UniProtKB/TrEMBL annotation:
Domain called Carrier: residue spans: 49-127
Catalyses which reaction(s): a fatty acyl-CoA + H2O = a fatty acid + CoA + H(+)
Cofactor: pantetheine 4'-phosphate
Keyword Phosphoprotein set for record: yes
Protein's name according to its UniProt entry: Thioesterase TesA
InterPro entries linked: AB_hydrolase_fold (IPR029058), ACP-like_sf (IPR036736), AMP-bd_C_sf (IPR045851), PKS_PP-bd (IPR020806), PP-bd_ACP (IPR009081), Ppantetheine_attach_site (IPR006162), TEII (IPR012223), Thioesterase (IPR001031)
GO molecular function, one term: fatty acyl-CoA hydrolase activity
Family to which this protein belongs: Belongs to the thioesterase family.
One Pfam family hit: PP-binding
Lineage: Bacteria, Bacillati, Actinomycetota, Actinomycetes, Mycobacteriales
Assigned keywords, A-Z: Ligase, Phosphopantetheine, Phosphoprotein, Virulence
Superkingdom assignment: Bacteria
Keyword hit for Ligase: yes
């Protein structure tokens, strides 16, 4: 067994509790373990700081992807318990490959290691020269910690706390003080952090960018789910004074395109200028109801996500991850399944539909249906790729969207 998979602590329990469905009751197990720790007098701190340069670099990458402060992520904290999911795990792996020159790292390694300490041990074990990895990590930290505003904007723009006029779960990436901004709406089950790299690419084009966080995930895990797409759009519209950043350019991926459409309707009714809506890999509003209800059973939900191409199939074997991810996806699927919109409902903003030419769920004809929902200009673009083509074309898409801002 690899060293990073060997348990650090072993606790003997009198019994293992199970749920009515025959699965391990993780909540009760946690309570039993906590009680055992209390009795044993083990007061080990829940937070452990990095001890090596490599651990510090990994913490920086993971914290950035999760949208957390560095000191909020310990080296023994479980990535998925902190709000990570398969999409974010893919982004962490991409970041480590890019910044730490570790091309051998796979997404499956994230599910095996789960913590920064274990991940550092795994990477070091694969290096013929461990010193090389420490040196690369040191260079990365030097770049990431530069204080020049110009350098930070070009190389690694830091997520700024939203202005007081916005809820804390509206994530802001500052690109300019000029009027106009892009507002990003994630896909079903997606967290705001999954669109951090798109936000960075938009900032590199001198565009102020906001990414909204839906309830039931990450820092909003305890927030109740919206019972409809319209209710979710209203909650997001009321989360900030959008007049301050107008005119807005909206970008929504998959379900996020429908949420963005309803947001645009609210904005236009309330006098907030919307320049354009970018509908990415999403059905047109008037076609959603005819598609029928989305899956509701846990396994069917994850199988549907795997079919879309945004979730690693290894998740189907990870019961703990399923418990973290499924509530958010099911909440989004319920809202989308109940959505209906007549074909004559239009927004004044231009609509630009965009998708992947190998997306087996959203065809070119389906994207073209968005034309009926604008009284402005309609355009259509295709990129090479599937439903999540965006991950491979961030810079190109960011340039196109940025050109729409002003």
């Amino acid at each position: 067994m690899p060293a990073h998979m060997i348990p650090r602590h072993v606790t003997l329990l009198d019994r293992i509790p199970f749920t009515d469905s025959g699965k391990i009751d993780r909540a009760e197990v946690g309570a039993l373990l906590a009680a055992e720790v209390e009795r044993s007098g083990d007061r080990s701190a829940p937070y452990a700081a990095p001890r090596t340069v490599l651990q510090r670099a990994l913490r920086r990458i993971v914290a950035d992807i999760l949208g957390r402060a560095n000191d909020a992520v310990g080296v023994h904290d479980d990535f998925f318990a902190l709000g990570g999911d398969s999409v974010l795990a893919t982004q962490v792996v991409a970041g480590i490959r890019r910044w730490l020159d570790s091309p051998s790292l796979m997404v499956a390694d994230m599910f095996a290691a789960r913590t920064i300490a274990a991940l550092a041990q795994l990477l070091t074990g694969r290096e013929a020269n461990a010193d090389r990895l420490e040196l690369v990590a040191e260079v990365y930290l030097e770049i990431a910690n530069m204080t020049s505003a110009d350098v930070m904007a070009a190389l690694d723009p830091i997520e700024q706390p939203a202005q007081p006029a916005f809820k804390p779960w509206v994530k802001r990436f500052t690109g300019t003080d000029k009027p106009g901004a892009v507002l990003v709406f994630p896909h079903a089950g997606g967290a705001a952090a999954a669109y951090r790299w798109l936000a960075k690419s938009l900032v590199a084009n001198d565009v102020d960018t906001f990414v909204v966080q839906y309830p039931q995930r990450a820092d909003r895990r305890s927030h109740p789910a919206a019972d409809s797409i319209e209710a979710l759009a209203l909650e997001l519209f009321e989360a900030g004074d959008w007049h301050l950043t107008a005119p807005l350019t909206l970008f929504g991926h998959c379900m996020g395109a429908i949420v963005a459409f309803e947001f645009a309707r609210l904005a236009e009714r309330n006098g907030v200028p919307v320049r354009a809506l970018w509908a990415s890999s999403g059905q047109a509003p008037s076609t959603v109801a005819a598609s029928g209800p989305l899956p509701t059973a846990d396994r069917d939900v994850l199988a549907d996500m795997v079919d879309l191409g945004g979730t690693d199939p290894v998740l189907l074997e990870d019961e703990e991850f399923v418990e973290l991810l499924v509530p958010a996806v099911k909440a989004d699927y319920r809202a989308l399944s109940g959505y209906s919109c007549p074909p004559d409902v239009r927004i004044r903003a231009n609509i630009h539909a965009v998708g992947g030419n190998r997306d087996h769920r959203i065809s070119r004809e389906m994207l073209t249906s968005w034309e009926t929902h604008t009284s402005g200009r309609f355009t259509l673009s295709h990129f090479d790729g599937g439903h999540f083509y965006l991950n491979d074309h961030l810079d190109a898409v960011a340039r196109m969207v940025s050109a729409d801002v002003r």
